Amino acid sequence: MKFYTLLLFTLFAASSSFAQDHSALEKIFEDYQGEHPGASVAIIKEGEFIYQEGFGLANLELGQKVDSKTNFRLASISKQFTTTAILQLADQDKVNLSWTLDEVFEDFPDYGKNIKIYHLLNHTSGLWDYEEFVPDTAMNHQIMDDGVLDLIRQQEKVYFLAGEEYRYSNTGYALLALIVEKYSEMSFPDYLEKNIFQPLDMSNTLAYVRGENEVFNRAYGYDKKDGNWTKRDQSSTSAVLGDGGIYSNVEDLLKWDQALYEGTVLSKELIEQTFTQGKLNNEKEINYGLGWHIKNWEGEKVMYHTGSSTSFRNIFYRIPAKNLSVIILTNRNFPNEFDMVDLAEEVVEKVRED
């Protein structure tokens, strides 16, 4: 009888602790709850969700709630899939990371002789930001990846010589998507679907092209001004795919997270390369690998990527040594993109092992 009582007490204590943990996590996301643009939050440990919750609304007009199947625009989290596509083609000897842009693209400016595909992957190309040349009012004429190439062909200089500095570049990733198309002889969305999403059974993930495919269970983006929420889901640059055009949900991203451990669609050796800090020409390391930011946090190596576009703020945060990942997807225009790192680390603190 004493043993039975002790067992009940132990189970009750564990249950109470678990409930407290959930309460603490819900407190973090209290501003996302109710009749507001929401958040899909997932914590993955050893290949399983140890926490998953949807807060708020995916569609304010229809009152559609956020859940684990809600698909958000990933924004720059998309870059890891673009990177994977390039590395797959390199592994098949269809692409060489040392090729220069003047070798890849016809009529490219002379400075392309110094810029290698590798420089695009780790943001050391020095290419101009295409967003500087695209008004944010051109909603009826959204630029796409090939339009980015056209803009860059018109520029006569770069920010710096390739490899001399690190400067985050959406331009580089738009060009990477075009490289995937050229050397795979497939559209970028079709390549990702056949070579990454289908093999991993990521059935709700896609590179969205208006009029060609459809995002089901879609979260729409909202902008808060003067205390009111306004739907503002797209901008003049939202149709560019290589730098941020993928939609997905936490259920599919769980599968992607596990593929990064298992080497399913990319070898473990190549995956490790994506998680290795790049170097400048002077051998100085940068805090970016190939499609991933890299940092040390409280003694652990962390790989993460934020995603910020019109009314979406996201983060995919991984601590491989702990087999722990945090995914936060939101459909609103704040906080600052880099504050999402602090938000993810606040979540990690709540589930940290003793």
TrEMBL record:
Gene3D superfamilies: DD-peptidase/beta-lactamase superfamily
Domain annotation Beta-lactamase-related: ranges: 26-342
Protein name (database record): Beta-lactamase family protein
Species whose genome carries this gene: Litoribacter ruber
Signal peptide: 1-19
UniProt KW keywords: Signal
Family annotation (InterPro entries): AmpC-like (IPR050491), Beta-lactam-related (IPR001466), Beta-lactam/transpept-like (IPR012338)
PANTHER family associated with the record: BETA-LACTAMASE-RELATED DOMAIN-CONTAINING PROTEIN (PTHR46825:SF9), D-ALANYL-D-ALANINE-CARBOXYPEPTIDASE/ENDOPEPTIDASE AMPH (PTHR46825)
Top-level taxon of the source organism: Bacteria
One matching Pfam family: Beta-lactamase
